[in-house]
Amino acid sequence: MQPFVGRQPQLEELRARLAQARAGVPQLVAVRGPAGIGKTALLNRFLDEVRTEPATVIRASSEEAEVLLAGGVLEQLARSVGPSGAGLLPPTPPGSRVDDAVAAGTRLLDLFGALEDAGPLVLVVDDLHWADLPSLRALAFALRRLVADHVLALLALREEAVPGLPDGLRRILDTGGLIRLRGLDEDDLTELAGAMGMSGLSRAHAQRLREGTQGNPLHAQAILEETTPAEWGPEDRPLPSPRSLRFVVQRRYEGIGADARRLVDAAAVLGSRSALPVAAALGNVAEPLPALSEATACHLLVAGTSRLPWTLSFPHPLVRSAVYDALDPARRSALHTSAATLADDEPTALRHRIAAAPAPDAVLSEDLARFARQEATRQAWSSAVAHLVAASRASLDRDAGRRLLLEAVAWMLQTGDAASAQSFADEVRGFPATALRDSVLGSLAMARGEPAAAETLLRSAWDQAQAGTDPAIDPEAAAGIALQYAIHRYGRLDAAGSARWCRRALERTGPDTAVHQGAQTYLAHSLGYSGDVDEAYAATEGADGRDSDEAFAWLQPRSARGMLRLVDDDLDGARADLSAVATAAYRLGVLNTAAFAYATLARADYLAGAWDDAVLHAGRAVAINDESEYSFTRFMVAGIAALVPAARGEWAAAEAFLDGPGVLGPGDYERSIVAVATSRARLAETRGDPTGVLAALAPVRDLIYQDAIEEPGFWPWVDMYAEALVALGDVAEADALLVPNEERAARRGRRSSVARLARARGRVAAAAGRREEAESAFDRSLTAIGQLSRPFEQAKGRLAAGQFLRRAGQRRRAAELLEAAHRAFSALGAQPWALRCATELAGSGLQPVPRSAASRPRLTSQELVVARLAAAGRTNREIAGELVVSVKTVEYHLHNAFQKLRITRRSELAPRLAEPAGQA
Fold first, then answer.
1. Is residue 237 located within the same domain as residue 98?
2. Given 243, 263, 285, which residue is the final one in a domain?
3. Is the N or the C terminus of the chain less surrounded, counting Cβ atoms within 10 Å?
4. pTM over cut 0.70
5. Strands ordered across the beta sheet of 302-304
6. Closest to 173 (Cα-Cα) out of 185, 165, 183, 181
7. Is 340 a member of any domain?
8. Is residue 76 located within the same domain as residue 131?
9. DSSP assignment, residue 96?
C-alpha cells in the first residue's frame, strides 16, 4: 500500500469542500494529474476520514477496456451503496435506453436525493477519462442541476485526458474546484522513504529521486522498494527505470505459483473487476482459492468477498497495467479470444474480440457493424455509434472503414448528438473528398450554426452525387443529402428552397424510410412558411398512424402539424401533437427533436396562458439541448424559455436564457437570429423600452428571406415593431409596415394575428388623431382575440384599448377594460403589465384596482411552479422528475416559497396560492 505523504494541503481543501456540501452548497472538485501521481491515494485517505462521519459515499472506478459498456459507471455507483442500493438507481424503464443521458441523469439525481437524507453525499469517480460516454453524459446532466444539494463530487482524471471529455462535462469541470497534483518534493520523498522503513535518505538522494521520477509517488516507491541509494550508481547515470513499478510487479509475480499466475493473468485480461469463477475458468485454475490467497498475499489482487460471487480487482490500476503489458502478446490475444467465448453478452464478447485482434479483421468489422445496426434498430444510439466506430477501425478495406465512420457520425447528428459528432470533425476532414464526406461535414457545420460552410459542403456533396463520382452514393444516400440540404435551407428561412429540396429527397426514397419521414416533416414546415397551408397540412397526412412504429415515431410530420396548428390558433391540437412528439423523441433519445418539440410545446402553453406548464416544458427543452450541444436549435429553445420570465419581469432570468447559448452573430442561421431577436424585443416591450424593441428587431428587417418572417403566426414581431415606432413618433412608417401584414393575416384567417395587428393599427390611428378608425381597430382586436383562449394577448388588447378610451374621455369603459386586464395580468404573474394597468387607472383619477390586504408576495416562476405542483399533491421526487432538477433543488425552491408565503405546511399552499399576488 502506498504511504500517504505530501498531500496535506489537498486533504485540507477536500475537508473544507465537504463542510460546504454539508451546509447545502454543492461542491465539485476535479483531482487531476498524471498516472501514479497519487490521485487515488488522496481520495482513499479522505474517504477514510469521511467514513467516520455521518456521510454517505458512493464510488466508481473506470477503466479503458470498458468504455463500450454503456452505463457501467452508473451501475457501479448504485452497487457501491451496498445491498440497499439495488433499487436506488432503477433499471431503464421499458421503451427507453440505458444511454439516454437525460433519463439516466434524472435517475442519478433521484439517487442523490435518496442518499442525502442521511448526511452529505460524497460521490467519487476515479479515472473519469475512461468512463463510458452514457455515464459521462448522465453525470454531467446531474451535476449541472445541483442547486442546494448536500453533495461533494470528486472526479479524478489524468491531466492529458481532459480535452477528450465531452464539451459539456469539460465546462462543468472548469466551473468547479481543481486540485492539480504535482510531483512530491524532496521533503515529501524523504518522508516517503521513512514511512517505508528506510532511514537517512540524504538531501542529495532525495533530489536525485525527485528528478528521476518527477516526484511520482508510485514510481518513487517502486524504486525505493526495489533498490537502495547505494545501488543507483554514479550521479551522471539515470536512476533505474522510472517505470520500475513493472519490475516490482514482475518480482511479486515471479514469487507466486503457476495457478496464481494464471489467475492474475486472467483477471488482468477481464478488466479492473471480474468474478472469481470467470477468472478461474479463463485461467484454467481448478483450485482458485489457494491461488487467490497467494496473489492477495503478494499485493497483486484484492478479493471482494461481501457478496457472491467473489470478485477480483487490483490494488492500483498501474498494477493491472504492469501485469497486462507483461503478458506475451500471443498469450494475451489467446486469453481475450477465450474470454469472448465465456462472455454471456455480445458487447462483452465483441470487446474481447477487439482486444484479441492483432490486425484489422474483416469478420470482426462485419460483426461489429451488424451489432451496431441492431442497436440502432432498438434506438440504443450511443452503443450503436460506439460499435460502428469500432467496426470502422477494424475494417481491412480503408474506404469501407471510412464509410462506416461517416455513417456513425451521421447517426450522431441524426439524433442531435452534436457534441460527439464534432469530436470526429478533424478526422473526417482528412478523408478524400467524396459526396458522403462532404455531406457529413456540411451537417457538422449546420450543427455548429455555420450556414455559409454548410452551404458550400452540402452543395459539393449534391453535385458529386449527381455526377456519380462516389460509388457509395445510391438513390437512398442521395435522398439523405437532399434532406440535409432541405433542413439547411429551412434554417435559412428559405421556404421555397427547403420545399424544393424536400421534394428531391422524396423522389429518391421509398415510403417507409427515415429519410421519407424527415422529408415529409420539413416539407410541411417549409410549405407553412410559404403560406401554402392546405399543402402543408397534406404533407402531414398519416401523422397519427405510426405511433407504434418506434423506428419513425420521432421523425413523424406530427411535429410540423403541431406547429401548423399553433399558428392556426388550434392550441389544443398543437399541444396534443407536440406533447406526443416530445415524449416519443425524449424516450428514444433523439435530442434535437425532443428539444424542438418541448420548446414549441412551451410556446403553445405560453399562448394558452398555462405558464407553469410553459416553464416546465421550456426547462426540459433547455436541459435536453444542453446535452446535445446542437446549435441549430439552441437559440430557438433559449428564446422560448425566456418568454415567461420576460413577461413576469424576471429580468435576470430572462437575460440568462438569452445570453446563455453563446454569441449570436450576423453569420448565424436566420432562424436563430429571428428567435433571439423576437424574445429580446418582448423583454424590451415588457420594460416599456420602445428603442430597445427596435434595436432588438433591427436584424430581422435586414434578412434576405422575408416570406417566412412575415407569414402570420410563425414569428409575431410586426405588432411590437409598429407599436414601438408609434411610441417614438414614427407613425407613418408604422402605418406602412402594417398594411401588407394586415392583408396577409386576413387572407389566412388567423385570428390571433389579426388581433395583434389590429391592436397596433389602433395605436397608429390614435397617434394620427383618427379617433373613429382607432376605436374600430381596437374593437376588431378585442373581438378577434376574444374568440380564442389567449389570456395574455387578451389582456394586452384590453390595456391598449383602455389607454385609448381613457384619453378619448370614455372613462367607464376604459376602467372596465383596464381592471379586466389587471386581473388577467395578475393571475398570470405578469406584474410589470399589471402595474402598467394600475398606473393608468391611478393617473386618470379613476379608482385603482385595490390590493387585498391578504395578497401574497411574488414568487419567481420556478418557485411558483414547484409550489403549485406541491399543492396538487406531488411529492418532491415527482416534482424533481417533472422539472428535471434534483430533489434538493425542489426543496430549496419550496423552502423559499414557504418563507415568502409565511406558511409552514404543504396543506397551506393551495389557499395561499389562490390569493392574488402582490405587486413588485
1. no
2. 243
3. N
4. yes
5. 273-275, 311-313, 302-304
6. 165
7. yes
8. yes
9. S
